[in-house]
Design goal:
The chain is of the alpha/beta class. Strand 14 and strand 15 form a beta hairpin. The two termini are 30 Å apart. Bound molecules: iron/sulfur cluster. The site of iron/sulfur cluster (SF4) has 12 residues, from loops.
Length: 555
Amino acid sequence: TLTDLNDYITPSQACIKPVEQVNPSRAVESGAAATEIRIDSNGSYYEVSKGLAQQTQKLQQAEISLNDCLACSGCITSAESILITLQSHTEVLNFLEHNPSRLVPGHRIPVLSIAPQSLASLAASLASSSGQPSVPLADVLSRVRAFATECLGFDHVYDTTFARHLSLLEHIREFQERQDEDGHRLPMLASACPGWVCYAEKTHSEMLPFISQTKSPQAIMGTLVKGWMAHKWGKRPEDIYHITVMPCYDKKLEASRPDFFDEASNTRDVDCVLTTGEFVLLIKEKNFDLSVPVPPSPTLPSDLPDLLVHLGTSSGSYLHAIISHLIRSSPTPLTLSTASAEATSKQNADSTEYVLTAPDGSTVFRGATCYGFRNLQNVVRRVARDAGIRVIRGRPTVVSKRGASQKAYDYVEVMACPGGCVNGGGQLPRSTTAHIDTSGTLADDGDGGMGSKWADRAWTREVERAYWDGREPVGDRFGLLTPPASPKRKATQIAERSNAHADQLALLVLSDMCNVSVSRWGEEMDAQGEERRRKLFRTSYHAVESEVIGLGVKW
Ligand code: SF4
C-alpha cells in the first residue's frame, strides 16, 4: 500500500499553518456566542465581540511560504501521516521488540546507517551541553555504534560517507556524459537534496532535465545494504531491516519513492528514516548517555570505510568533486578562482560561484553552490533563461537554444536548507537554548531561532565546525584543487589515503553488482552492464501536476 502513496500535497486545500492569536478575556453575555467572524468585500476577516461594547478586530492573514512547507512536518496528507508514523523512533522500537530471535525463521538483520551531518549535529550538541570542545566525529560514531549494538541489538552500524563516495563517482560520470552530449543537458543541478528535487517536480518541471539522476548517498546506501552487503552476508534483501539517521524529514519521503522499492523482494532499500532529533529520542528512551566516551569497538569491524573525507562542502562536496575531476583530467593546468564568490559571499554566504580558467584566460567551467530557497529562485530563473526556457501560460516552453559558452553555470550544487544539510530541519538545536519536543522535532525556545525550524547562523556554524573538526586542512578547503598544489597537510593526506582505499572498494562493488570487471568507475561497460549501473546508481523524476482546481476548493 505504501508504494502507492502520493508524496505531494495540494497546499491550498490541505495546508494548515497555525497562527498565534491572543484572545483577551472579555465579559460574555450568558448564552451568547463570544465572538463572530465577519468578512468584508475585500475578503478581510474581522473578529467582532458580542458584548455590550462591540469591538471589531481585523484578523491577521496567514501566509505560507515554501520554507514553511519544507520546515513543517504537520502539513501532510493522511497517507503521508501513515508513512511518517511508520518512520518514527517508536516504529523502530516496535520492530526490534517483535523481531524474532536470530535462529528463528523471519528474523531480520537490523542495520543502521547514519549521515555525517547527523553525527556533526550530535557532536556540536554534546559540546554545547557540556561546554567542552567539539567531540570528533569518529568518537561520536563509536558511541552511536555502542548504543545501537549494545542497547538496541543492531548487527551493523555504518556512516553514509562510503555511499556518498559512490554517489560522487557516479555524479562525475554523469557530468561527463552530459558534457559529451555537446553540453546540451548542462547545466547539471545536484540531486542529493529531496527538498529541492520535490520542489522542482512540483513547481519547476522545466528544471527536471537539468537535475542529475545520480542517486543520493541515502539511496545508494540502501542499494549497498540490501544488495551488495546482503549478498555478502548470504541474505536476501527482505532479511534485512535498514534504518537511516538523516538531517531532515525530506529524506523520509525520498526513501518512500517508488524507485527505491524492490518489487521482487517486496522491500524498500531503506525501511525507516529517523531524523537526528528522533534518534536522540531513541537514545533517551533507552537511557543511554552519549556524552560518555566508549573505546573504539573492536567487536564490530565495519566492512565499509568509516567517515571518508570529501573536501568541499558539508552538504556533500558535489561541486568540488566535479571541479577536482576537471582539474585532474585537464591536459593543461587550470586555475580555480573564487574571487567573485568571495565578493558574493559577503552578501550571501549560501550562494557562491567558482570559476575554472585555462592558461589562455578562457573560462573552462563555472559552478555555484546555492543553498536555501531564496537563492534557489534566482538560480532557477538564470538556468531557465540560459537554456532558453520560459514558462508560458504555465507550461515550460523552449524559446531559443543558446551555445554552451553563454551559460551562467555548468554545475550548481543546490540544497534546500539555508546553510545546507548541517542545518537540516531534523537536526538538533543548541542544547542550552532549546530542547527536543516529544515528537522529536526541533523546538527552539531561546533566542537562537529565527521563528522557524532552521537554526540560527551561529549554531549552524558550530555544527559545520563539528563536521570538519580534525578532518580538513584548517582554512583551506581547496588544498587538493588549486594548482600549484598547496602544501600537503595531515588531514589532506589522510583523506587521500582513505579515499584511495574507497576507490578500490567502489570498483569491487561496481564489478560485483554489474557482473562486469572494471578498472575505473567511469569505464564503459557492455549494454547489460550499463543498464544495470543505471538501475543501481541512478533514478528518475516525474513532473507533478497540481491537483488544485480553483472551483473545486471547498470552504
Ligand atoms: Fe535535507 Fe536540507 Fe540537506 Fe536538502 S539541504 S537534503 S532538505 S537537510
